[in-house]
Design brief:
Helix content: 40-55%
Structural class: alpha+beta
Oligomer: single chain
Radius of gyration: 23 Å
Low-confidence stretches: 420-424
Number of helices: 16
Distance between the termini: 54 Å
């Protein structure tokens, strides 16, 4: 059973002991991501994640690297559209050391100008690497198609000109804006002593002072206009994405959409995978996936295919969509999807890292932390009629499109004006 405690400085701590494991995980979750960045801040959430490892008041870059290796396990950080998280996965004996180290990274970064300039170059290389990867590039393009003109269209890494131009003053201003107790959650799960850990976190984080309120996500909507974007790249395949309006986080139909995704394109037994890869042999990989955001969501189909077969794959996707919307799902498909989803959830409950992640993100974003029985009951309650209704709502509208690869822009031109049911 989890427990949420608010320290005197408004920092929230969420605990969940897992007594049958010998490992533990701790994460510091900061509400700072691409969705919250103003126009002059694009990519700063990610850059600040990097800078936290570039020396602190107590430790040099090299000393920090040594401490991370000495703890063992894994110490890392990640930036998303919604937040930045600093985390450690360790054995129970190293949890206190991990908490000390995360406090150092989050609260005491030096932000030295020389290190900032060096790290900006590192991020620019990361942007170049992403641009060279067509799978990453098409993901950025579909976000632009679905959310053009809104913060979700911004790449997490930022844009080259913006990153190159940031100063130390920009970085410090951004950290002061987002890195404060009311905008942060610490999550701990696994094997630990609750009172000892709470005392340690009070000692390490309790003196952190900043009276700003928590950041508020802007209201975002998925574009109603069908946008089609293409980018030619000298690679052997064309990477394609079809994007639909999905559901926002904590929507009552979230379980139904996840089950629909499993049946439609989210598993190796799914209709898209079986028809287009196994029966037709036209792709190595094809899948679908939903994303849930505070005020909106999307549902995206991904595939990589030879340019000569791209239109055929789109036609087959369209045929499977028509069949899905016309006939719904079978009892067997729904039962199989439920078993997959429930099993995945139950297995995740046994992982300290997965529980820490679920608790930290939910607490930071103000989402309900549901007990296992409620989650499993919610999955079980979904009916065939629910899945069909959700499929009509999500897949029955026009799709935004993004193509990256050989002759991608030519492919866009050939299917200009595409809407559901009009390919072929």
């Amino acid at each position: 059973m989890h427990e949420v405690i608010t320290l005197d400085n408004a920092l929230r701590v969420v605990f969940e002991p897992i007594n049958h494991t010998r490992s533990a995980a701790i994460g510091v979750w900061v509400k700072a991501g691409a969705l919250l960045e103003d126009d002059g801040e694009t990519g700063l959430s990610h850059l600040m994640e990097h800078m936290s490892f570039k020396g602190t008041k107590r430790y040099s870059v090299q000393q920090l690297a040594g401490l991370m290796d000495m703890i063992g396990g894994q110490v890392n950080a990640a930036t998303s559209k919604l937040y930045t998280t600093y985390y450690a996965r360790v054995t129970e004996g190293n949890l206190k050391k991990a908490a000390d180290l995360l406090a150092e990274l989050v609260l005491q970064p030096l932000m030295a100008e020389e290190e900032l300039n060096r790290e900006k170059n590192v991020v620019l290389e990361e942007i170049n690497m992403t641009a060279d990867n067509p799978e990453d590039a098409v993901d950025d393009l579909i976000n632009e198609a679905l959310y053009s003109g809104q913060p979700l269209a911004k790449p997490i890494l930022g844009r080259r000109n913006a990153i190159a131009g940031y100063t130390r003053e920009d970085a410090i201003r951004f950290r002061d804006k987002f890195y404060h107790p009311a905008n942060t959650v610490i999550s701990v799960a696994g094997q630990f002593k609750r009172d000892e850990m709470l005392s340690l976190l009070n000692e390490r984080f309790g003196t952190w002072q900043n009276v700003q309120p928590a950041a508020v996500f802007p209201a975002i909507t998925t574009n109603r206009t069908i946008v089609q974007l293409g980018a030619d790249k000298p690679v052997e395949q064309v990477y394609l994405c079809l994007g639909y309006k999905g559901l926002q986080a904590d929507h009552p139909d979230s379980y139904g959409l996840l089950l629909m995704n499993t049946i439609y394109g989210g598993a190796v037994s799914s209709r898209l995978f079986q028809r287009i890869r196994e029966q037709k042999g036209l792709v190595y990989n094809i899948y679908s996936a939903p994303s849930f955001y505070p005020t909106c969501g999307d549902f995206v189909i991904y595939a990589a295919v030879s340019p000569a077969n791209a239109e055929k794959v789109l036609q087959l996707v369209d045929e499977e969509t028509e069949s899905f919307l016309a006939d719904g799902v079978s009892n067997r498909e729904l039962r199989q999807a439920k078993e997959q989803m429930k099993t995945g959830y139950v297995l995740a409950q046994e992982s300290a890292y997965q529980r820490m992640t679920a608790l930290g993100s939910a607490t930071l974003l103000g989402r309900e932390i549901k007990p296992a029985r409620k989650v499993l009951a919610g999955i079980e309650r979904v009916t065939k009629q629910d899945v069909h209704r959700i499929a009509v709502q999500v897949l029955g509208s026009g799709a935004g499109m993004a193509f990256v690869g050989k002759d991608a822009e030519k492919l866009i031109a050939t299917i200009r004006g595409y809407e559901y049911g009009q390919i072929g």
